[in-house]
PsbP C-terminal domain-containing protein (Oryza brachyantha), 135 residues
Amino acid sequence: MTYYGDKAKPRTYAARFASPDRSELVSVVIKPSNQLKITFLEAKDITDLGTLKEASKIFVPGGAKLYSARTIKVKDEEDIRTYYFYEFGLDKEHVAVMATVNSGKTYIAGATAPETKWDDDGVKLRSAAVSLSIS
């Protein structure tokens, strides 16, 4: 129950930051993993969504030009967590995405800017996406 009743809209983003002109964005989205890939079992790791290549169909839109894709493994307190990183271009936009899964939820951090601004700000935006860390 919300204070706004049925007029309340579900939040799309867990966090979203924009440059003053709103051309550069950093966003964090949290979605149930079964919304991304239909399965009866709860995803425990991003590899449950498929290999790096198979999961690219989930995280990289069709028609995008893939510049980079890699698996990143990070040791946390209890285990080794796997992250997938994708960098691609689509419609004059440059996008960096980092994703992982924890307890059936997929955490996605993305950064985007026009291709014309990526040369100047791409390192910072890529770093923002790659900074995603789930404990």
